[in-house]
Specification:
Length: about 325
């Protein structure tokens, strides 16, 4: 066990690890090491980098266990490094890239958020994250791929949920369709609707085709602040509501309440905060700096749902970073917050 000073020092130095992983992911280093060991000089030619600087980066990441380094100074992949390969089914490459770009810059303005309560990203970029991504297609694509990769971390309770007797699932803010695609693959008698902004769903058609479910899933575009597709008996909202303040989250839920069947089910994939929840509280800080949203406790989820005409029926605790909240339409009048 390390002394407290060293333990704290390691935490303080964490920003360098984030950037080192980001650079390796951005350059695609792991993809070039898939066929065997390489010297930094040869690797630098492949990825377009300075050989001496790349050697120093690789040496550091080898010390962290991301890559191997042998006596001839050739580098290779470890099990951790394998996760930075683009073609790895468990890849976290785009998660590393997203964490090292606008997310990282916003984190550097956390002090502004804590002092003012304002969203660091908005302060830094002059507009909200989603508005900014609408103007930056590369960043939007990276974000969608990063979100898709987090779906695969230690299972997804939305995919394993029992959809018996259900016919139409509507994925609100479904991005490129990773989640609804997996649900439809596992439930071959169901049909689906993927609903998102045009820039959010721009890659959905090709991805759903890859999944083999394009004939059972239609894509609709629009803003969930205006309305959502009606008639579904299951509505899925995965990692959406935590992006927004209570007022805006209530507006989204109210639109879903208007659209859902009276015997329908709402599934919310987000954190349900508890004491000493490191992953959940880390994600909560991300919402503070990136979107102005927040993670919520079970009681906060219950109150939020009541304000939009839903009753919380069950919480499935996390296997990975996120939990699953199940809710049903409430026959009682909405409880206003």
């Amino acid at each position: 066990m390390e002394p407290p000073r060293q333990e704290l020092f390691n935490m303080i130095q964490g920003y360098k690890t984030t950037q080192a992983l980001y650079v390796a992911a951005k350059l695609g280093v792991a993809d070039h090491l898939v066929h065997g060991l390489m010297r930094a000089e040869d690797l630098a030619k492949e990825v377009g980098a300075n050989s001496k600087a790349l050697f120093r980066l690789m040496r550091h990441l080898a010390a962290l266990g991301i890559f191997t380094q042998d006596k001839s100074t050739k580098f290779g992949l470890t099990p951790l490094g394998e996760l930075l390969r683009t073609d790895n089914p468990e890849s976290m490459r785009y998660s590393a890239i997203f964490s090292g770009e606008e997310n990282y810059k916003a984190a550097g303005n956390l002090l502004h958020s804590v002092r003012t309560g304002e969203t660091a990203f908005n302060h830094l970029y002059g507009k909200g994250h989603f508005d900014w991504m609408a103007e930056n297609t590369d960043a939007s694509s990276t974000f969608n791929k990063a979100m898709a990769q987090t779906l695969r971390r230690r299972g997804n309770p939305v995919e394993s949920y029992d959809y018996s007797g259900r016919h139409l699932v509507v994925d609100i803010g479904g991005g490129r369709g990773d989640l609804i695609g997996s649900v439809l693959v596992s439930n071959p008698t169901m049909e689906g609707i993927l609903f998102d902004l045009p820039q959010g769903s721009s890659e959905a058609q090709s991805h759903l085709k890859t999944k083999g479910v394009q004939d059972r899933c239609r894509i609709e575009t629009g803003s969930f602040f205006d309305s959502v597709p009606a008639g579904g008996d299951v509505y899925v909202v995965s990692r959406i509501l935590h992006d927004w303040s209570d007022d805006k989250a209530t507006a989204i839920l109210a639109n879903i309440r208007k659209a859902i069947k009276e015997d329908g089910t709402l599934l919310i994939r987000d954190s349900v905060l508890s004491d000493n929840d490191v992953q959940g509280s880390t994600l909560d800080l991300t919402m503070l700096i990136m979107t102005g949203g927040q993670e919520r406790t079970e009681s906060e989820w219950r109150s939020l749902l009541q304000s939009a005409g839903f009753a919380l029926t069950r919480v499935y605790k996390k296997e990975g970073q996120l939990d699953l909240v199940e809710a049903k339409p409430d026959k009682q009048p909405p409880h206003r917050r």
